[in-house]
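Much of the work behind modern protein science is quiet bookkeeping, done one molecule at a time. The protein below has been through that process, and both of its lines are reproduced in full.


***
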Amino acid sequence: MEPDFERRLMRSMSGCSSLSSSPFSSPVSSPSPIKHSDRFIPLRCLSQPSAYFIDQEQAHKGPLIDKKSSRDPSTTTNTGTNSSSTNGTTIAADRTKDILTYQALLQNEMFGTQIDSLYDEQHMNSVYSNSNSNHHHLTGTTNQPGTNDSPINGGMSTQGGTATVNVPSVGGIIHTTSISGTNGILSQSSQQRLPYTNTNSNLLRTRDPNTIFRYSARRNTDDLHYSPYSLSPLSPASIRLLRSPRKQLRKIPKTPFKVLDAPELQDDFYLNLVDWSSTNILAVGLNASVYLWNANTSNVTRLCDLQTESDTVTSVAWSDRGQYVAVGTHKGIVQIWDATTNRKTVSFPRHTARVGALAWNDYCIYSGSRDRFILQNDTRSSKQERKLAGHRQEVCGLKWSPDRQLLASGGNDNRLLVWNQSCMNPIQIYTDHTAAVKAIAWSPHQQGLLASGGGTADRYIRFWNTLTAQSLQCIDTGSQVCNLAWSKHSNELVSTHGYSQNQIVVWKYPSMLQLARLTGHTFRVLYLAVSPDGESIVTGAGDETLRFWNVFTKCRANKESDSVLNLFNKIR
């Protein structure tokens, strides 16, 4: 390469104001004006490999920084913003998306990383803005979710004539590429690792040999036969990246919109002490009492007090219609209370140990106990219908499927069982977890899809197809999984965690990318309930607080266009 051309190219890429600021510039400056190159041409020298990437973050540092987001989080509220700040945030988000797309495109064509989508934009935005300058080498380990150790700026270390370039991570993928130091990018070996996904993912593919460095037409492959990019030298992954649709960012507030004190809220993983009714009333078990908090009026009433019976509350559950509250006690009693009259209607003293899990199915209440049994009781006749024996240790999770045909139970024996309404034995047994299974959630969007989470020794969220009894996928969350809940409106779910992160995570299914990570609790987030409208959640922890978060959004109905071109508007 000619020295003069190399000098001008380096200046156009680094954005220097003068030739003397570049380490490659000659002491004699050129009298002619510098013309910026109109296309990216890779250098064939390795004297400064970091110059291969334009620092887009610095180039857009001013417009990209949202002043509102830079404030102290403790001072933020849930009030609305004006249109100007909203537009500024949208513009900044669009620029961030363009920067990430540009970086991914460069990585595809230079290193064959095969990035064909930017996944979730909010996750990408957080990765791009929160990452520091730490680099992951070939022998490094993958970070856990929620850490800010993902590299953005490229780094390099040379050893024995071989350069190891740490390519910026996009979408959680860490790319480490070894480049020989003889003729630039001539031979390279790439290792890709995608954390928290199945190792058999189709994202790990071989590089297309027709890259930008070989200006030749690529063969028709995949679905690109009639694409306007068919004769482009870009790889198929880059073409898919350019054709991917732009999506609007959905911002999830990082602070709760309400915090309530919950004195004597027990820090016990095996209990279920919080539930939200269909009538918008929250039931909370505090030591020997059950309190009802009306979300519409903020009034608090005490439903019952078991102190006179020398007993304590170990679980609560609302009936489907929101009239009755089932209360499980430490002595193994299940009490049914009418929330409209604050009176106990029936009691079932049939367990020999504490009742930590409850689940309603019409007028029947199912209770799981430390005595390892699941009992079915009819609240209308006070009769015991069934006694289900399948767990070897305490039952700590019970959930009915949306169609009320299958019951999932989790226990301290690390097993997940699935029951139907006719058999006395479980129809499916899953033993993949290595710790207690308390977190259980059925998908309201896909029939038979079940999610479960394991305790401290397991830390995995696993998904099951109960129609075929097959395991679908799993993800290591890095901490104890205490609760799971699906969104009613979108294919998302929220998980709460204990040791050692004490956080709340919103996931996108099936990609299992983090949409948000919410912190604030100082103890394990052991309790979770979803509001009846499906937009808010409440979490409880041993720090004796209840925190309310806006994490889900409703699907907005598409408005009919008022345009005169819409002929259906004129039909009466």
Q: What stands out?
A: Residues 83-111 form the longest helix (29 residues). The CA atoms of residues 145 and 477 lie 7 Å apart. The longest strand covers residues 162-170.
